Amino acid sequence: MNAANYSGTRGLMHEEPLLFERAHRASEAIALPGLADAEAPAALQAFLRNEEAGIPGLSEPETVRHFVRLSQWNHGIETGFYPLGSCTMKYNPRINEQLVRLPGLAHIHPDQPEDTVQGALALLYQLQHALGEISGLPHVSLQPAAGAHGELLGIMMIRAWHDKRGDHKRRIVLVPDSAHGTNPASAALAGMKTVEIKSAANGQIDLEVLRAHLNDEVAALMLTNPNTTGHFESNIAEICHLVHEAGGLVYGDGANLNAIVGKARPGDMGIDCLHINVHKTFSTPHGGGGPGAGPVAVNDTLAPFLPVPRIEKAKDAYRIVHEDEASIGPVFGSLGQVGVLLRATAYIAAFGREHIHRIAEDAVLNANYMLHRLESAYHVPFPGLCKHECLLTDAHQNRHGVKTLDIAKRLIDLGFHPMTVYFPLIVHGAMLIEPTETESRQAIDAFCDAMLEIAAACEQGDTEALHAAPLHPIRRRLDETQAARRPVLTWPKHSTGG
Ligand SMILES: Cc1ncc(COP(=O)(O)O)c(C=O)c1O
After folding, report:
1. In CATH, what number is assigned to the domain containing residue 370?
2. CA triplet 371, 375, 376: central angle to 5 degrees?
3. What is the pairing mode between strands 139-141 and 296-298?
4. Given the CA of residue 292, which atom of ligand 1 is nearest to it?
5. Residues 396, 248: one domain?
6. Which pLDDT tens digit goes with each residue over 124-148?
7. Does ligand 1 have an atom closer than 6 angstroms to the CB of 145?
8. The pLDDT of residue 257
9. 305 alpha carbon to ligand 1 midpoint, in Å?
10. 172-188 tens-digit pLDDT
11. How buried is residue 9: exposed, middle or buried, by Cβ count under 10 Å (0-12/13-18/19+)?
């Protein structure tokens, strides 16, 4: 299979100057007649500009072509395979787009009277209900605008629950060292103290370490399951039991729900509160921009604290509840990111109750197929079947002086978007690859072929191209530290005298 068939990275070969660098003053997109100072109404005189606006002088076609060319630089799930582990960059079915663009959904306003938006409310209510069933946690808020936002809401509710019981000293949130970076950040934002707990050698929660950290100041454990190594926490029931016994609650990071959806329910495992990255599990992939949504599902314990507004069904009509005594209040301007939520509704409906387990089965099958094809060439830190993503390291390639970064950059030359690199942090030289359920065997094979080609080049000592990669794109290897520490985000006007 020709890797270039799946390429989405080939458009990076042409330099595209900034509009300012291209500008030639003689040409303007729209030439307006000059406005003499005297003609401006008196009230506006104070706002008249004394110097030129500095807008680049370009014709309309030049401007349009510039932006279209830039758009072609973007790698998206519609241009190629996008195997970013932990991001679940799955294909977004076109029918979802058509549905959310229906005027009755796309042209409504959050402040419209309820009786004029009953259809949209019905679909959102249906999603609330479906997420409650899927998670085993029946009470759902659709408000959070991202996974991290859901985490913040969840920890705020857990804090409110402890406070309501007069247990004000419970301010510690335990976070495994394998957690996604947003977990400790969200807990800190909710005013809690985070304490990291070290994972066992197999990348899972070490029950002894957990026991040693549990005390009467612990408000919650924040746990991702399947965890960020792509494995299911095999002691999940015991973990939840220990935390509950110590008076804490278990917050589930449900961002990896695509691995178990329709097969197992976090609520049944003992999780009290869970956010679901619907933009991962149920299409609308994030990363590279675009909105998300992180609905939160809770059990009866936390239900009274859920934010308002939320949707309720009263006989045959749907209504928005704006006030609720114990609620922590709103965490978003309206009901949530409705466009993203409706796409999720469509994705779930397309499978239905009967077939929703296919999402998890295909995602897990694809990841294990990939693992199987690559395990002879790459080091697998936690052997055995994985869930939705497969984790490799650069340990074998290190012997030839080749690192994860070299492999990732070489993939760009071979026409692929690289996998997630150096995450999870607990695994040295990590490469986390998530094919998702929407990729064909051909696409996965083409990616594996490229990975094997790289490994073979290492074995043959043919590492020059690997160290120099990427060779094809106009931007080669950047100084990523400088780019993060000293980003240049503005055009230096003086450099071209423009
Ligand atoms: C495990 C995990 N937790 C939390 C998040 C945060 O989600 P978001 O980027 O929507 O804030 C992600 C994002 O991919 C994730 O993979």
Report:
1. 3.90.1150.10
2. 150
3. antiparallel
4. 10
5. no
6. 999 999 999 999 999 999 999 999 9
7. no
8. 97
9. 23
10. 999 999 999 999 999 99
11. buried
Q: List, in sequence order, every residue forming a beta bridge with 320; answer none if it has no partner.
A: 311
Residue showing tokens 């209510």 = 125
Query: Residue 439: how many CB atoms within 10 A of its CB?
Result: 25
Q: Which atom of ligand 1 is nearest to the CA of 86?
A: 16
327 and 396: one domain? no
20 phi, psi to nearest 5 deg: -65, -35
Ligand 1 lined by 148 (C-beta under 6 Å)? yes
Max Cα-Cα span within the chain: 81
Could you tell me the distance, in angstroms and rounded to a whole number, from the CA of residue 147 to the centre of ligand 1? 5
d(C-alpha 342, C-alpha 470), whole Å: 39
Residue 12 lies in a domain: no
Single-letter code of the amino acid located at 491: W
Residue 200: which domain range? 95-355
Is the pTM higher than 0.70? The answer reads yes
pLDDT of residue 41: 79
Q: Which atom of ligand 1 is nearest to the CA of 151?
A: 4
Can you give the pLDDT at residue 234? 95
DSSP per residue, 45-59 = GGG--SS--------
Q: What's residue 144's pLDDT?
A: 96
CB 272 within 8 A of CB 298: yes
Regarding whether 305 and 389 lie in a shared domain, the answer is no
Q: Is residue 374 part of a domain?
A: yes
Same domain, 426 and 470: yes
Q: How far is the C-alpha of 290 from the C-alpha of 170, rounded, in Å?
A: 36
Contacts of residue 492, Cβ cutoff 8 Å, sequence gap at least 6: none
Q: Which residues of the chain have pLDDT under 50?
A: 1-7, 288, 496-498
Lookup result for tokens 């694809």? 366
